[in-house]
Amino acid sequence: MLITNYLKKYWWRYALGIVFLLVVDYIQIIIPRRIGNIIDYIETDSWNLDHLKILVLSIIMLATGLVIGRFFWRFFIIGAARLFQYKTINTMFTHIIELDQNFYDKWRTGDLMTRFTSDTRQLERMMGPAVIMMVDTLFMTVMTVIAMGTFVDWELTFLSILPLPIIAIISLFFGRIIHKRFTEVQESTSDLSNITEESLSGMDVIKLYANKDTMKKLFNNSSKDYYDSYIKLIRIWGLMHPLVTFLGSLAQLFVFFFGGKMVINGEITLGDFIMTNQYVGMLIWPMMAFGFLVNNIQRGRASLKRITNVLDQERTVIEPEKKNFDFKGHFVVKNLNFKYPTSERKILKNVNLEIKPGEMIAFVGKIGSGKSTLAKLLTKLYQVEDNSIFIDNEDINNIHGEIIRENVSYVPQDNFLFSMSIRENIAFSNIDLALKAEEYAEKASVDKDLKNLEKGYETIVGERGVTLSGGQRQRVTIARALAKKSKVIILDDCLSAVDTETEEKIIKNLREETIGKTIIVISHRLKAVKNSNKIYVFEDGKIYESGTHNELLEKDGIYADMYQKQMIEEKLEEE
Ligand SMILES: Nc1ncnc2c1ncn2[C@@H]1O[C@H](COP(=O)(O)OP(=O)(O)OP(=O)(O)O)[C@@H](O)[C@H]1O
């Protein structure tokens, strides 16, 4: 489908390229004949220099034609293949950027990267070099054999090309092994790049665990695998090339033996003999190309399957038509049950809650009790059953997810920043806000820290945000969420890297700065969220209890227990 659609639009590029390729092939066949003619002409007694000059000039013109023809077939065919690769990469990216969270939960980044790089390159080879090999194999072989037969002698042609099909068989046979070894090289390359990437990103962990030797060993194993797989590939190339050259020379020997005899017997001229020799040399490439062609198509088809697999992935969240929706942010959750599409385990069990516009709500509870899952469902990252979540009295399934996410800023636990300046990171939702970055940073209590950096807001955030401390990174992501100007802000345990006091201060500050906005805070520190309008306590996917801080303390349940423990821990730390 991918290829058919492309060919429907760009077939003319291939048609033009093939015309140039055929012209080049034809000229290649004419040149040996001209050389043969010159030799025969010199051998006659009546030759004159002017005529010789014209003959030589005609060869120069043919050679110029070759140069021009070669430029254009490359331009059209290789250009079309590269364009196909470029379009495929873009089609894949446009497709996956539309996919929902479930796709990213299932697919590994490394695997996707390979499909974007080496698989599309493989496809490019099938759409470019393979097309050329096909034309060459078909036309060059047929045209050269016909030329040899008609210009020289059919019997000599038949005898001289006898060893050549063996080259095709050999290159087909070796092609399979090369394909296998090449795949091994690719796999070991991706393993090596994986371990290099991981070691560099996790260098601080390696150093902190004083684990250099283990890492060195792992790295060495991987680079040794890479080296070994390459050597195996080189070995097979090393065997195949001399064999092909040997068979090519054998064919030329046949020409010397049978052709030489015919020259002595006066059946053909010396020019015919040289012509045949050159033609036989020209047949070696199409024979080799045949093996490469089969190989290339096999690899291309495998890659095409891997790419179509990505393009066949569909959204699991079914979206209605995107209509205007007056989003106020009144959430009602009714008897909500939820399982992730990738698992059979029930994560949320009969959850009921209500969040009114302008309120500050807290989700607290043990690790893995389902707090983040509920927050993600409120932003429609996964599909839920009908009649389980309502926003402003409308079933969430009837509201387009993009409208919800335009109005809700979700700050997740892992604070990913892009490798751009801090200013650009803060203004990520709208670059026009770049000049106001300081304002949002102040609201997120990170302005002072950023001003103290040598390049201030213009500091480029390094790989995975390493130029900033954990707490600074977390607050920059909050500033980024505030710049989005949404009606609801969800802070998903995104302040764990700052101390309790700072977390409390930031949340208090946020509340004052964002009056009228709904704030949902997920936190393990109860002191930081005790001023919430309502606190929901999660336990094993259920809401165990809810209420204000004081109400929950009175209930003397899980919350009261957790709070008392945290207070004791705090006191102990102070002492
Ligand atoms: N994408 C996913 N696919 C399958 N299971 C998942 C996925 N994400 C989370 N889970 C599982 O769902 C359960 C609830 O996870 P969730 O992140 O909602 O907990 P949490 O209360 O926010 O925990 P924490 O306080 O550690 O953030 C966990 O057991 C987790 O393993």
From TrEMBL:
InterPro entries the UniProt entry points to: AAA+_ATPase (IPR003593), ABC1_TM_dom (IPR011527), ABC1_TM_sf (IPR036640), ABC_transporter-like_ATP-bd (IPR003439), ABC_transporter-like_CS (IPR017871), P-loop_NTPase (IPR027417), Type_1_exporter (IPR039421)
This protein's GO CC annotations: plasma membrane
MF-aspect GO terms: ABC-type oligopeptide transporter activity; ATP binding; ATP hydrolysis activity
Chain ranges passing through the membrane: 12-31, 51-73, 130-152, 158-178, 236-259, 279-297
Ranges for domain ABC transporter: 333-565
A Pfam family of this chain: ABC_tran
UniProt superkingdom: Bacteria
Keywords: ATP-binding, Cell membrane, Membrane, Nucleotide-binding, Transmembrane, Transmembrane helix, Transport
Location of the ABC transmembrane type-1 domain: 15-299
Protein location: Cell membrane
Record flagged with keyword Protein biosynthesis: no
Record's bilayer topology term: Multi-pass membrane protein
Location (main, coarse): membrane
Gene3D superfamilies: ABC transporter type 1, transmembrane domain, P-loop containing nucleotide triphosphate hydrolases
Protein name listed in UniProt: ATP-binding cassette, subfamily B
